[in-house]
Every structure is written in structure tokens, then in C-alpha cells.
Design brief:
Oligomer: single chain
Distance between the termini: 40 Å
Number of helices: 28
Helix content: 40-55%
Largest sheet: 7 strands, mixed
CATH architecture of the largest domain: 2-Layer Sandwich
Strand content: 15-25%
Strand order of the largest sheet: 23-24-22-21-26-29-30
Number of strands: 30
CATH topology of the largest domain: Ribosomal Protein S5, domain 2
Mean pLDDT: 84
Radius of gyration: 48 Å
CATH class of the largest domain: Alpha Beta
Number of domains: 4
Length: 811
Amino acid sequence: MEKVKGLDASQLCQRTDPEQFNFETTADVDDLQDPIGQPRAVQAMQFGTGIERKGFNVFALGPSGMDKRAFVSQFFAGQAQSEAVPSDWCYANNFAEPHRPQAIGLPAGMGVRLRQDMEQLVEELRTALAASFESEEYQTRRQVIAEEFKERQEQAFKGLQERAQEGGLAVLRTPAGLAFAPVRDGEVLSREEVEKLGAEKRQQLEQEVETLQEELQKILRQMPSWQRDMRDKMRELDREVATLAVGGLMDELRERYSDYDRVAKYLDDVRKDVVENASEFFPSEQDPSTVLSALLGGAGAQREPGGPALLRRYRVNVLVDHSSSEGAPVVYEDNPTYQNLIGRVEHMAQMGALVTDFNLVKAGALHRANGGYLMLDARELLLQPYAWDGLKRALQSGQLRIESLGQMLSLVSTVSLEPEPIALDVKVALLGEPMLYYLLWQLDPDFADLFKVAADLEERMERSPENQLLYARLIATLARRHDLRPFDRGAVARVIEHSARVAGDAAKLSTHMRSISDLLQEADYQAGEAGSEVVTADAVQHAIDAQIYRSDRLRERAQEAILRDTLLIDTEGEAIGQVNGLSVAQLGSFAFGRPTRITAQVRMGKGEVVDIEREVELGGPIHSKGVLILSGFLGGRYAAERPLSLSASLVFEQSYSGVEGDSASSAELYALLSAIAEVPLRQSLAVTGSVNQRGQVQAIGGVNEKIEGFFDVCRARGLTGEQGVLIPAANVKHLMLRQDVVDAVAAGQFQVYPVEFIDQGIEILTGVPAGERDEGGHYAEGTVNYLVEKRLAQLAEKRAEFSPAAGEGEV
């Protein structure tokens, strides 16, 4: 097997040559117009915005900080510019059913115009109606109607009086009403005088009174009918006068909106209502009904003439106004509650009660985005009660129906409204993390029908020369967007190098916009502190160092514990069954590596490799899987034809929290092989990498942080040239190490070994050849594999001595 050599310093970090850029600073670079490094998401957005089919809404999925809103908004805004401005939407009074306001759609800008026209109409109606109802002709005609009723009443009573006089009776008004009494020579007879009359005369008078009483009752029964006739005539007169007064105004307004059927019908309804309620425009003392009320003995209703109630009755509530819009709307709702999304009906307090009308209907984000595009944060939407259900219902029905949550859940008993639904035509984009997208797809059966387009944003892009030039334009664009100083070529190159480090791959660049933007702004601050007009590579490096310093308190404490021998980590010498493993701790956006001692103990047993972390429930399932793979490797290589008769225990020493991942499985295997063969391992080396059952070392994550974590410990104790780290060969392409690590490797003070197989790693760690099987299937004497196989054979023989076949109970 080929012997592994340490990596050359040039392989540890791929630098960016500033000379490849043909500009001095980013001030000379054009803005980047298209999204960078997102070909899949770009194609999805182009399709999602272009297709006009139901259900093809967009879900932009990507990690937090990817600036999904800006990405989606760019496509929506570009498409919206080429589209027509959508209709204005208004709510107006439904005179037949006031609890169901009618929705009116109008071309952009005409909603406000209709509202202004209606306000002006009310003012003009006041003047026109006042002039008509105060005219001499109107007053004369009303008087004629009143005199006609009065004359009919007087004629009826006059005839009754004449009949009474003929019968020797007189009609008297008493507190109890009208009464009849006998008279002589114009004088009413007293009771005594009536008694003196003969019986025949008294009987005649009684019969006459009875007849007159019947005629009086007949007259009184006719009075309500006469009063109704008079009221009807007066109402008819009011309608006639009001119709003439408003006809010209209404005809002119109706002609203006004759092309809009809903408005024309609404104006016809207004005309009818104005005619029916013309008295609302007058002060109480001039109210036409006051005359009638006075004639009938009433007091007349007292009300505020032409007051707020009247203005509200004929007002137009402009829900959505596009008078100043250009193209289709693009709306982002940052607080997608149910009411902010669907709309709401507000209430106002009057005399201790909550009342409402069509003027208190308020628009939601879907109303403002209707005919255009709406962006919502998926997580915020799902956190709001009933908001997700409301959005789905609107998209499925294609209608915007405003419903009060309290009314819908029967939580309030106040009078509410049922506004007429509005047709909905909107493209919705949800912005969220991948986990939310896949959970919704799995758990909500409606999700796949409503959000058919997934715009999956990539966190990394290829680090090709062409893409590095595009990245320079991205830096220039972000610098201008945030009003930063120009970045020179060296600063751009350093940002690109750091971007590859953030991506965790020397051949990739990060597209995590928040990280890039934050670094640019901090570098600009550092340049300002240094008094520079241009951001240099030094300013970028200072910003990176400052970011690390603000976040590395716990890393510093961990390294201090190692240097003070609180945590036991050896960086020199040799030990059997003991190796330095490497792990990564993630604290927010900051990650750091730290070494951990891994030890193994072996004894005779039944072929079990015991993971102590798993036994005490500190090990995760992936870590446990890595340990179980070790049993497969040992059995397959060393005990294919005999029992594997050992019991081994593995543990992360001084680990007091959970352990997860399989990146330490190769280190555990090295410790196990060392313990079995009783061959010491170099403690000046640390190991990372997972292993499979065939002994291949596999790639892991966080390789840069792991190397630097062990390097920092070694440097603090003093670099000897013997220290280093074993990494999977597959991770070499991911290396973007700090400059101090690269310099130490170049000086021969530290080594990074790329390992493909366990045999390569065991040779480096022990200094003893691993050994390969010869034609007879045997390992060369003295090799690590020979010693392992020999020890396992000895354990198998000893175990056979204790087997039941030998007459002993199994231990």
C-alpha cells in the first residue's frame, strides 16, 4: 500500500489572485442584475411567474439568511412592470340589505374618483333639495293638501252638527271627547229640564243621540284613512319634488359611469333612496313631515339634518386604490395575521354598543396584492391562528371573503357584516426553510395543490474564474446597496476566500447573503476606523478576526482547560488504545474544533464492541451506527472463519454531553486496533474521519475547524514538527485553512495527512507497517494486522477453553 505523505502547504488553502480582476475598486464595477449561483431557483421562478394556472404558486425554500425575499421580489417586480394595473375595489351601501355591502370593481384611479363624486353629490343634493322644498310652489301644494284634509274633516263635523240641530241637539267638546246635548233657544238644557220633558220627547231625543253617535263613530273611523290619504299625497309630493330636484344631478353622474354596470345600478339605488329619504337633508323645523305631524297632533322626529349618518350612508369605501400604481402590485406582508391577510370589519362604540357599517370594512394583504403578487414568510404565517387556513380557503375558492374571526367562532354577539366576496387573482410566494416545505408537503394534503412550484435556493456555487468575477460584481452591488466604501481588488479576493471557507469547500463559494453582507459592512467599519477611503484586504481580515473574537469565548475556555490539564489531551508521546479524536462545536454562526481523548479496552468476550456513550444514552443513533460498523470490520477482516471472541469498550473521555455523528469512527477503530495489537499510537497526532466495513476512510464535515482546533492546542504547547492531523483524503478539496496553519505546514512544524484506508492511518499513527495478506492469506510477522489477528486467535482459543463443550459454564 502506498505510503501517505503530508499535504503540501499549497493544498491547504486555495488563494484568490487579486490580479485576475481588471478593476482598481468595486466603484468601477457594474451592478449584478441577475441572481448569482441559483440556476435551479431562477428557472423555477421564471416558470412560477410566467405560468397563469391555478395552484402554481411558489415556495422559495432555503436556509435563514439567504435573502429569499429579495430573490423572489426581483422576479415578481420584473414581471409586474409588464402587467396592467389591476382594478380598484370599493364597498358601497347595499340599500336593500345593509348587512351585505356590495363590492364594486373599477379601473385604476376611478375608485377615489367615485368616492369624491359621491361626497360632492351629497353636498349638491343638500342645496338642490333645500331649494326645491323651500320653494313657494312646494309650500303652496303642501298647504293645499293640508287644507283639503282640514276641509274634509270640517265638512264631516259640520254635517253632523246640522243633523244634531235639526234634532234639537248640540255637539259639545268635553275632556272625554265629543258629546250630544238637547238645546232650547240655543241653550243647553240642564238635567232637571230634561227630566221635565215628556217621556215621548225624551225617547225621541235618545234615539236621535244614538243615531248621531253612530254617524260620529263613522266619521272617526274614516279619520285614519283620510290621514293616510294625506300622508300618501304628501309623500307623493315629496317624491315628485325630490325626483325633479335630484334628477339632473343623478343623470349627470350616471352618464359619467354609464360604462360600468355595477356603478350605474348603485347610482339608481342611490336615487331611489334619496327620493325616499329626502327629509334627511332638512333641519327639523323645515322637515316636510313636521307639518303633517303637527296636523295630526305629533311632535315630529328630531334628527341631525345632513349629518354624519347621512354622509356615511352615501359614502364609497375605497378598499384598494391603484391611482398611483405602475404595473401590478408586489406586496410583502411581514405580519400575516388572519385579519392582516384576509381583511377585517371594524366596530365603533355608540351609546355603549358596538356598531359597524360598510365604511369600516378594511383591506388585507390579499386585497392589496389582488391582480399582482404577494410574498409571505411561511413560518410567521403558520404561527398565526387561522391565517394558513384563511389563505388556503381564499386561493382554493378564488374569492376574498371577509369574515370576522369572532363572528366565525361565535365568540361575539355584536352586529357584523357579510361583505360581498371579491374575485381573487394573485400569485403567492411563501418564503421558508426546507424543513417547513417538506413538512407541509407531507402533512397538509392541500399544500401540493396550491404551491406547485418549489424554488430551491442553493447555499453554494462553483468557484470558477467566471463565477469569481461575478462574485466581485455581487460585492460591488452589495457595497452600493448598503452605501459602503469601495472594495479594492485585494479586499474582493479576501472576501472570496472567506466565502469559500464559509461554504466549507475550496471549490465552492457561499451564496449565504446575510453572511456576505455582514462581512462587507464590518469591513467597511474597520476601514473607517483605520481612516481609509477604500476597503482593503487588511480591513476584511480585521473584520473576520473581530467576528471570531466576539464569538470564541467558549473555545478559549475549552483550550484553557486542555492547556491546564483539566481536560486530558496529550500532544506528544505514545499510548496503547488511546487516540485524539476531533469534534466540532456549533455555537450560533460560529463553529470551532476541539480534540477529545478516545480510549479502548479489550478483553475476552462474545464479539461485542460496547459503546459506553450509547449505554448511558449520551450517544446519538449515527454515532452508535459508526461503532457497530467497527464490529463488522473486525469480523470481516480478522475472524471470517473463527468466532470473534473479544469484548471491547469505547468511550469519549471527559465527555459530559451528547455525542453524535460518525466522524470519530476511524479514530475509535485506531484505538481499538491499538488495544488489540498492544501497539502504541502517537499522541502528537489527531484523527478525524468515518469508516466503513471495508476499512475505507470517508469524508466528514467541519474539517477546517477540526484541524485548526488541534493546531491551536499544539501551538500553545509548542510546535515540534511531529504534530499533525489525519483527515480523509476525500476532504482535501474542502480545505481552506487559516494562514497561520498554512505557514506552520510550510515550515515543517505541522502536518496534515490525507488517508484513504485504515491501514494507511494505522501506519502513520504507530510507525509500524499495517501489513497485507500474502498468497497464503497470511500477514507478515510483526505488522499491525498480524498482531491483531494473532491476538484475536489467542482470545478465541482461550474462550474455547471455557465453552460448555469443555465441561465448563460459559463466562
